[in-house]
Q: What sequence folds into this?
């Protein structure tokens, strides 16, 4: 069994990249997600925000197919997740995990090229080189293309993995804390990359802790609290000082960014 | 210059290095076969050797006078061919295992194939089975090796997935059980059987015959031909199971396929040669350091390298203490164990302990 063209991908029956309905997830005998209804729309950046343990990464894992839901439905392009073969879904959905580990010292270029694996043997493989080049340029990783992945710093590794995910050319892109290991400049770079990917018509869903970053670059934000969706909508609507103070159990004020007008969350310090 | 242009500029050097390695390993293997073919208790000149081969191939030349012809064709050549085949199987199986576990310490023995095969062989000797004549012991070893690896796999699965740590620990437990069973067989065996069991356990190719070559060649060839099919998928598996799945790899199916191929390769090798350790550990590791971790070149290289190393090791085994013969498995373990210790320390340091 190799990566052959194999099964024809099922014909999508809707334009909606991902939809979760009445989603419930149990882990260790406890409901970690309940009553979640959420859509990832093409051309949109959707940020999942919320305190630690709220269920952000769990929600992303379910969308990524790593976790099974205990109840409710997950549909990708209108079809239940189970209807997709691994290969077919890999051409439509790319996932950036939180931690990056590579067993053997593969070169950075090799790793990014691995993102093209789902397209091997299809006409799209003609774009392998241009996609890899584009992905490495977007993530500013060309300068260490020749180095081995294991020799890079954590932040550099994270950018290489992001490049791999971009090279996969998927319509639904799931990123679990893509900015966690990055410096200020590269956090902003990830924000711009997400916008660019959305402008290409893809649906981008990311878990992010930095609320200002989420506010500045997202079309919509989903605020999770204790396994439920506390709010979902445009950042201006969701980032309400009272609501955030309650969910995070930390008093905050929300002001408008003087440059962009996007909401900016400032903890109240005494 | 763009990154990809830079990559293209350097990739020929990688290809050149792989070609160079193939040439060097082929030369080492060829030289080993010639030296090993001519040396031993019955000394043969290289030109006699060449003449005899040419004669058999119908290219002129003359057979060697006296017993030499028989020594060469009935004792040395089957042993050389069997050594090369066993070495190729062990080297290739080691690469597959390491890729599958994502760990340079993984060895075919880790999942219990070798120990399982040993149980079958030792059991056959102790019980005095002869249902298939000379084939009885290899057959039993092969069957029990395959059974063991299947059991290990089933035990280590939970849900629809297999965690690597569980698989390794299950392998450890199965290896322990196999050791106990072998001990039990030895306890109940008579003196003649004990001698045979011990020799088999230490690993040796001294009993090579053309029949044994014929017995394992089909299995070995199937395994060696199937292995390169999984090269690309093994590369993706280096990213981890979930990322590999997200890139379209059916990880469960891949693992079953790899287990079957590994069982085929190791059980075939162990069935005719006993337990010869560390070839599957040392050879892939050294080649990975020189050719890079890409499995497309690593799989064929490690098969070739395994054959080359084992041919020279077997030559040493039968000549260093002549006229006596050092068991090959003992020799490879003597050289391989310190290497394993070194690798263990290095891996531990690079991981910051075994968290």
A:
């Amino acid at each position: 069994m190799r990566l052959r063209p194999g099964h024809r991908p099922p014909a999508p029956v809707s334009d909606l990249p991902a939809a979760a309905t009445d989603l419930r997830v149990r882990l260790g005998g406890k409901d970690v997600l309940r009553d979640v209804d959420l859509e990832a729309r093409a051309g949109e950046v959707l940020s999942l925000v919320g305190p630690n343990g709220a269920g952000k990464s769990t929600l992303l894992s379910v969308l990524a197919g790593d976790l099974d839901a205990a109840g409710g439905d997950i549909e990708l392009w209108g079809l239940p997740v189970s209807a997709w073969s691994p290969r077919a879904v890999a051409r439509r959905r790319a996932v950036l995990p939180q931690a990056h580990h590579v067993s053997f010292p593969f070169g950075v270029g090799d790793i990014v090229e691995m993102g093209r694996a789902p397209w091997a043997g299809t006409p799209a493989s003609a774009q392998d080189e241009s996609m890899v080049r584009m992905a490495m340029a977007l993530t500013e990783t060309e300068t260490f293309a020749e180095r081995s992945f294991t020799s890079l710093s954590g932040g550099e590794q994270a950018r290489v993995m992001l490049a791999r995910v971009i090279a996969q050319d998927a319509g639904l892109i799931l990123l679990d804390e893509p900015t966690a290991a990055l410096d200020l400049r590269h956090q902003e770079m990830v924000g711009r990359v997400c916008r660019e990917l959305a402008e290409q018509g893809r649906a981008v869903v990311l878990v992010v802790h930095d609320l200002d970053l989420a506010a500045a670059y997202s079309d919509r934000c989903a605020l999770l609290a204790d396994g439920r969706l506390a709010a979902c909508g445009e950042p201006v609507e969701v980032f309400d000082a009272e609501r955030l103070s309650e969910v995070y159990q930390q008093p905050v004020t929300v002001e408008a960014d003087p440059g962009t007008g996007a909401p900016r969350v400032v903890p109240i310090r005494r | 210059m763009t990154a990809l242009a830079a990559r293209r500029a350097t990739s020929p050097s990688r290809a050149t290095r792989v070609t160079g390695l193939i040439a060097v390993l082929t030369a080492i293997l060829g030289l080993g076969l010639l030296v090993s073919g001519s040396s031993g208790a019955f000394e043969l000149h290289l030109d006699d050797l060449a003449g005899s081969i040419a004669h058999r191939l119908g290219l002129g030349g003359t057979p060697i006078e006296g017993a030499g012809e028989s020594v060469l064709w009935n004792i040395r050549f089957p042993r050389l061919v069997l050594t090369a085949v066993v070495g190729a199987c062990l080297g290739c199986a080691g690469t597959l295992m390491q890729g599958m576990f994502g760990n340079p310490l993984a060895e075919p023995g880790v999942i219990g194939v070798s120990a399982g095969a040993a149980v079958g062989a030792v059991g056959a000797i102790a019980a005095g089975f002869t249902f298939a004549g000379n084939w009885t012991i290899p057959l039993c070893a092969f069957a029990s090796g395959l059974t063991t690896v299947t059991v290990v796999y089933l035990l280590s699965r939970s849900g629809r997935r297999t965690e690597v740590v569980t698989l390794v620990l299950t392998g450890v437990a199965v290896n322990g059980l196999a050791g106990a069973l072998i001990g039990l067989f030895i306890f109940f065996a008579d003196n003649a059987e004990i001698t045979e069991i011990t020799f088999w356990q230490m690993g040796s190719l001294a009993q090579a015959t053309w029949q044994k070559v014929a017995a394992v060649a089909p299995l070995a060839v199937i395994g060696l031909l199937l292995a390169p099919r999984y090269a690309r998928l093994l590369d993706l598996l280096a990213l981890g199971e979930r990322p590999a799945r997200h890139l379209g790899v059916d990880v469960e199916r891949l693992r079953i396929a790899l287990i079957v191929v590994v069982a085929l390769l190791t059980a075939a090798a162990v069935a005719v040669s006993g337990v010869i350790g560390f070839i599957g550990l040392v050879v892939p590791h050294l080649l990975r350091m020189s050719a890079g971790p890409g499995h497309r070149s690593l799989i064929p290289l490690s098969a070739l390298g395994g054959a080359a190393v084992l041919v020279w090791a077997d030559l040493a085994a039968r000549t260093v203490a002549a006229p006596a013969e050092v068991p090959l498995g003992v020799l490879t373990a003597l050289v391989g164990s310190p290497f394993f210790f070194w690798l263990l320390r290095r891996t531990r340091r690079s991981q910051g302990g075994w968290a």
Remarks:
- The first helix of chain A runs from residue 56 to 64.
- Residues 1 and 56 of chain A are 35 Å apart (CA to CA).
- The two ends of chain A are 62 Å apart (CA to CA).
